[in-house]
Design brief:
With about 450 residues, the protein is of the alpha/beta class. It is built from 14 helices and 19 strands. The structure holds N-(aminocarbonyl)-beta-alanine and zinc ion (2 copies). The site of N-(aminocarbonyl)-beta-alanine has 8 residues, from loops.
């Protein structure tokens, strides 16, 4: 059935206009004032509301075997949580570890999503080793529409690559025109500092941050930038958490390195005191890079407002209380990760827009458009234009609510953002023209999501 979204304030990067949006066959076919309503058209009144392009989370983990366990969500649960929060596309990290075959891993990750996700999705393909078959496997994966790679400089002997492997990955990425995303922490320093702290009897979650200090992230960020500089590849730092690492990235950018920056929701809103809470309460807030000293948040918000932090993701990675307790005897064994897929847009709107830290342009850019452009989805996704996919979020800025594990849809028994107020929420969310969410409830079609095939564009 056709869909008409009437009289909303349409927000895209560089434009705000009061108009109607007409949708046929999954696609926007008309934008204008007082559009006609043909028979058999579903009409949504968006008067008094903002209409955004579907939001894009560029960094999530749904299927993830990691730290002796598995992240809790499936694509059924994760995609519904995403949609309720206004995210209509996510990009999942496909993460086979060093002992797995990369291509088999890629097929496995795809099979977990296919027919299960209610929103559209794509993958970043992790390169966790570089052996003789890697180049041909990566070529096949890119030809299949996965045009971004991921490397980890952290997680030694599991996901982590050494400098030689990083060089080979970046050199191939440059030839293929593929952007490389990177988790930037020095694996050797993390391993040494973990050993030292544990030997001193410092085993609680409060020691996770000191085991991966800001300098360790700044070193990883700077090293990644230097490798980009010397290969000519385009990079994207994931979950940048602190001012020191930001300086490393922006210094490189200033000298012409093609480096882009993502920070994630927890680092804007939570600080290291959360991980210093006693026992499991602290463990719930262990992620890597760790939550940092509070002063870093102002630096992240300012860089986001100015556009030098490009995107806001979540690094959604839910482990429940029982799983977190795997680390009760040592922080080294606490599964790293905090869920956030459902809360990103509303908390960014609340703390960015409602608190005056961001303007609407930057909000929509950071939460949708910039990711679409960097990752080969634009203008199909990330904007509202004739011929774009009809992924639309009718947003009620007057809604008031509270984040809580009691009401969230993520498959986890806690929320990292428990008790935080939200000032704004999607009232209608569509995926390719089909209403999937109304007022906090999933009302759509499970399994509707499609894998998005992307072309390399970073030559
Ligand atoms: O703590 C985190 N970030 N967990 C997920 C894995 C990763 O490093 O992205
Ligand atoms: Zn990471
Ligand atoms: Zn991650």
């Amino acid at each position: 059935m056709a869909l008409l979204i009437r009289n909303g304030e349409i927000v895209t990067v560089g434009s705000r206009v009061q108009a109607d949006i007409y949708v046929e066959n999954e696609t926007i076919t008309g934008i204008g004032k007082d559009l006609e309503t043909p028979p058999n058209t579903e009409v949504i009144d968006a008067s008094g509301k903002l209409v955004f392009p579907g939001f894009i989370d560029p960094h999530v983990h749904i299927y993830l075997p990691f730290m002796a366990t598995f992240a809790k969500d499936t694509h059924e649960t994760g995609s519904i949580a995403a949609l309720i929060g206004g995210t209509t596309t996510y990009i999942e990290m496909c993460c086979p570890n060093r002992n797995d075959d990369a291509f088999e891993g890629y097929q496995l990750w795809k099979s977990k999503a296919e027919g299960k996700s209610a929103c559209d999705y794509a993958f970043h393909m992790s390169v966790t080793k570089f052996v003789k078959e890697t180049e041909s496997q990566l070529r096949q994966i890119v030809a299949d529409g996965t045009a971004s790679f991921k490397i980890f400089l952290a997680y030694k002997n599991f996901f982590g690559v050494d400098d030689g492997e990083m060089y080979q990955t970046l050199e191939l990425a440059k030839r293929l025109g593929v952007i490389v995303t990177a988790h930037c922490e020095n694996a050797e320093l993390v391993a040494r500092l973990q050993q030292k702290l544990v030997a001193e009897g410092k085993t609680g979650p409060e020691w996770h941050e000191p085991s991966r200090p800001e300098s360790v992230e700044a070193e990883g960020t700077g090293r990644f930038a230097t490798f980009l500089e010397n290969t000519g590849a385009t990079g994207y730092v994931v979950h940048l958490s602190c001012e020191k690492a930001l300086h490393a990235a922006l210094g490189a950018k200033a000298r012409g390195v093609k480096i882009n920056v993502e920070s994630v929701l927890p680092h804007f809103l939570l600080d290291k005191s959360y991980a210093e809470r006693p026992g499991v309460e602290g463990m719930k807030h262990v992620m890597s890079p760790p939550l940092r000293a509070k002063h870093n948040q102002a630096a992240l918000w300012n860089a986001l407002a100015g556009g030098s932090i490009d995107t806001v993701g979540t690094d959604h990675c839910p482990f429940d209380t029982g799983q977190k307790l795997l680390g009760k005897d040592s922080f080294v064994n606490i599964p790293n990760g905090i869920p956030g897929i459902e809360d990103r847009v509303n908390l960014l709107y609340t703390h960015g827009m409602q608190r005056g830290r961001l303007d609407l342009d930057r909000f929509v850019d950071a939460a949708s458009t910039r990711a679409a452009k960097l990752f080969g989805l634009y203008p199909r996704k990330g904007t509202i234009a004739v011929a774009s996919d009809a992924d639309l979020v009718v947003y009620d800025t007057n809604y008031r609510g509270v984040v809580s594990a009691k009401s969230h849809h993520v498959n986890n028994d806690y929320s990292g953002f428990e008790g935080m107020l939200i000032e704004g929420r999607p009232s209608v969310v569509t995926v390719r023209g089909k209403v999937q969410v109304r007022d906090g409830k999933f009302v759509g079609e499970r399994g509707r999501g499609k894998m998005l095939k992307r072309e390399p564009s970073h030559f």
